[in-house]
Amino acid sequence: MNNKLISKGLVAALVGSLSVPAFAHTGGDSAGLVQGFLHPFTGLDHLLMMLAVGLIAVRMGGKHLRVLPAVFGGSLLAGAVLGMSGFTLAFVEQGILLSVVVLGLMLSAVFKFNLAISSVLVASFALLHGGAMGAESAGAMLTTVAGILMASGLIQLVGAGLGKVMLNYRFDRLLRTSGGIIALLGVVMSMA
Q: Fewer beta carbons within 10 Å, N or C terminal of the chain?
């Protein structure tokens, strides 16, 4: 693979994802394994945030590869339980959009973040995403959350895979540029 092929693939993926609604939190009911699994794919904010977590884990390397996905999953679950319990987090939508911007900037930074800072940021943002998803889930709560967790893990895995490909071909600059694109899309979504 060459730079142009990877660049075209990333641009195609981003353009294709723009046809997805910017916000997945419409307030409607979504219950069950299939609905839970599909939910993270219904909003660009979810996709970008979860892809960023996978990309960041690969870019930071070391313990980040194991810890960040686990922190994300645990915090997403905690947020979903809070949301399903009726606990409402303040400024959830703004926080979700901020998560896309901050994680994009984190990915694009020249320096690498330490594990503690990375974990706190990922945990905080996953809690917000989980809270919003949990607030919209009704009925089959366990299966809905299971579906959300499976899809979230898959999206992070895709992000990590893309990151590995970029690092294997020594495209660290492209990996950091993708962070800038993610942050920019977060800013655009916040103005919509």
A: C
Q: Model confidence over 32-70: pLDDT tens digits?
A: 889 889 988 988 998 999 999 999 999 999 999 999 999
Residue with tokens 């905690």: 78
User: pLDDT by residue (tens digit) across 130-172?
Assistant: 888 888 765 567 888 899 899 999 999 999 999 999 999 988 8
* Global confidence as pTM: 0.81
Selection from 127, 123, 125 nearest residue 186 by Cα: 125
